[in-house]
Amino acid sequence: MNKRLKCFARDIKQQVKALYLAGRDPRTSIAAKCLVVIVVAYALSPIDLIPDFIPVLGYVDDLILLPFGIYLAVKLIPEPLWHEFQTQVEKSSINLPKSWPAALAIGLFWCVSLAAIYALWRTFKG
Fold it and tell me: Which ranges does the record mark as transmembrane (predicted)?
């Protein structure tokens, strides 16, 4: 089981690197690039949408949302082009940057959500 999880994590990391290359390549369509930017920014963000310390739900984004986003993005990239990106990742070591704008967007999302919850609580409290 532990070996399978390590392989799964390695595969996700390789796919994110290939998507990073796809997002920077002019041959990738605009629709694919838009989704690629969202998926890669989320994957590289130092802040998760659902923090990992929340039991069970904290890992849902890592186990479901990220692979689903990768799947959708890959479907928008032509197969020969996708294989080219994967080959590039296998042949070279690509270092991915952290996405601080994505972290800021996720932090802003949580601040707005908490403010909305507080406003609703005050409304119903009376």
Answer: 30-47, 100-121
pLDDT one-digit tens code per residue, 54-87: 777 777 777 788 899 999 999 999 999 999 999 9
Phi, then psi, of 51 in degrees rounded to 5: -55, 140
pTM for the predicted model, two decimal places: 0.69
| CA-closest candidate to residue 40, choices 11, 73, 10 | 73
Tell me which residue range forms the domain holding 97. 2-125
DSSP the chain: -HHHHHHHHHHHHHHHHHHHHHHH-TTS-HHHHHHHHHHHHHHH-SS-SS-TTSTTGGGHIIIIIHHHHHHHHHHHS-HHHHHHHHHHHHHS-PPPPP-HHHHHHHHHHHHHHHHHHHHHHHHHH-
Phi, psi of 49 (to 5 degrees): -60, -45
